[in-house]
Amino acid sequence: MGALAELAGDEKNGDGSRTFVFINEGHTLGNALKTIIARYPEVDFCGYTIPHPTEQKLHFRIQSHRERAIDLLKRGLEDLEALCDHTIETFEKEMNAFNATAVEIN
């Protein structure tokens, strides 16, 4: 599991602009989270970078003039978790239905 830190130097931009550093995370989390947060109407910019391929760090940037970046990040992580839960539930339901059909055929 990764750790989270805030990149220094953003304080002058207000609470709506922050770069968060996720340790031991990569494109899988970055792209999924960016896709969710970038769709929020209060977000002006959302993106991520992997500074160097040999470092296990993900820099995740959020800019908003209407909400605090940390609140948007928390909301995005909660929405991503709900999406993953829904995906797992749907997959398991369909697998159970498939397996029940396969048993009937045999």
From TrEMBL:
<dbReference type="InterPro" id="IPR033898">
    <property type="entry name" value="RNAP_AC19"/>
</dbReference>
<dbReference type="InterPro" id="IPR036603">
    <property type="entry name" value="RBP11-like"/>
</dbReference>
<dbReference type="InterPro" id="IPR009025">
    <property type="entry name" value="RBP11-like_dimer"/>
</dbReference>
<feature type="domain" description="DNA-directed RNA polymerase RBP11-like dimerisation">
    <location>
        <begin position="19"/>
        <end position="89"/>
    </location>
</feature>
<comment type="similarity">
    <text>Belongs to the archaeal Rpo11/eukaryotic RPB11/RPC19 RNA polymerase subunit family.</text>
</comment>
<keyword id="KW-0240">DNA-directed RNA polymerase</keyword>
<dbReference type="InterPro" id="IPR008193">
    <property type="entry name" value="RNA_pol_Rpb11_13-16kDa_CS"/>
</dbReference>
<dbReference type="Pfam" id="PF13656">
    <property type="entry name" value="RNA_pol_L_2"/>
</dbReference>
<protein>
    <recommendedName>
        <fullName>DNA-directed RNA polymerase I subunit D</fullName>
    </recommendedName>
</protein>
<dbReference type="GO" id="GO:0000428">
    <property type="term" value="C:DNA-directed RNA polymerase complex"/>
</dbReference>
<dbReference type="InterPro" id="IPR022905">
    <property type="entry name" value="Rpo11-like"/>
</dbReference>
<keyword id="KW-0539">Nucleus</keyword>
<keyword id="KW-0804">Transcription</keyword>
